[in-house]
Amino acid sequence: MAGRWRIASTAATVAFLLAVLVAVLLVARTSGKSDDPDSGLGVSPGLARFAEADRGDAPSIAGPVVSGSGRASISHPGSVVVVNVWQSTCGPCRGEADELEAAARATREEAVFVGLDVVDQRSAAQAFLRTSRSSYAHIFDPDAQQLLKFNGVLPVQAIPSTAVIDKQGRVAARIIGPVSARTLTELVAEAAATS
């Protein structure tokens, strides 16, 4: 009888602990939810446009290029700049690569595109770029130091993300999540017109 009690007691304890764990996870998942779709990123996912009066200065970023030969930098050369943050293991990043390339080609007279590959292995990033056939420069940022300069605009944990910088070096728009060529083309036109 004592052996059965121990087994039943152990099973009951495991069931109880499992129920507590599920409850804790549900509370953690739903806590802090409100009408704001923040998702715990510190910024809302999706597209955010900034009025000219509300635009903050974008940082200058620089680093070695993913290809391994040379460096790239962005110090806002008087044209619209699009910075796309990606990683080779990111599925949505792979999905948006063709859209980014289409937008870069469509807006090549108005904008400079730069990729920012973060927390990645160089060989994996190089393989990603070979398959995506990207025509613009990509900065290799394995420790996310360049991304951290976008504090408050592009959160480190939100990959992919994109910033559109106007001709005066201010962040005109940001997208948390995958982008479309159409949206980027519109954002570049807006940033070029308001600068």
UniProtKB/TrEMBL annotation:
Task: Give a single Pfam family match.
Answer: Redoxin
Q: Does the keyword Ubl conjugation apply?
A: no
Write out the annotated subcellular location.
Answer: Cell envelope
The signal peptide annotation in the UniProt record is none
| One GO BP annotation of this record | cytochrome complex assembly
Provide any one GO MF term from the record. Answer: isomerase activity
Q: Which UniProt keywords apply?
A: Cytochrome c-type biogenesis, Disulfide bond, Isomerase, Redox-active center, Signal-anchor, Transmembrane
Segments forming domain Thioredoxin: 47-193
PROSITE patterns documented for this protein: THIOREDOXIN_1, THIOREDOXIN_2
GO cellular component, alphabetical, reads: cell envelope
**Which InterPro entries does the protein's record reference?**
Redoxin, Thioredoxin-like_sf, Thioredoxin_CS, Thioredoxin_domain, Thioredoxin_ResA/DsbE_sf
Keyword Amino-acid biosynthesis appears in the UniProt entry: no
Q: What name appears for this protein in its UniProt entry?
A: Thiol-disulfide isomerase or thioredoxin
